Please model this.
Amino acid sequence: MHNAPVDSPPRPPALRATARTTLALAGCSLLLLTLVALEWRPLMSLDDGIARTTHRWAVQDPVLTRTCRILTDWVWDPNTMRILVGVVVVWLAWRAAWWTVGWLVATVALGTALQQGTKAAVGRDRPVWPDPVDSAHYAAFPSGHAMTAAMVCGLLVWLLHRQGADRTLWRIALAWALVSVVGVGLTRVWLGVHWFTDVLGGWLLGALVVAVAVAVFERRAPRASAPVARASRRETAP
Model:
């Protein structure tokens, strides 16, 4: 079976599904951002209750807290995620998939700019504790760790699927992505450096960036690879 190239032609049905997903994610992201900015009391109470409970557990379990710090500071740190993107960019460049290289780099850069711009616009304070187990800087909403993990993992898993990777490999990558995205969000709440809705906002915005990027890719990916794919199918036909 012929594997689809990275820069393959757009598929209208997939594009329509991506557009619907994008609209849903945009609506949820905007709603959450508005409620956080307005400090909607029920949401603030929920955040406060979760934060107080998890902080008490973090103080009582220093071993798990230390593990969470290692995971969040090294394994799932935004810089680690960007290094992973850099490795994929080198691989794509080796395959001469230059349009995809530019698309991936631009998406990550614009996603990071969106993250920092939203933080500055909302200006939400982080949780403050008399006995903190960790520290962090800058505004709280959205969680940069959660958003970067969702964005990077989503983009790379989608690219792997689009290239026609082996099903077992793709499932392993998907499992790793899910564990990373969920895990980094939980560590940020456990360590008391983010409210739960900061993490939720990061997940939503990261997924939104992926959805928009996929829509752009489907519409704008070069069609020049289509004749190559057809020629390869003819050559492999019996």
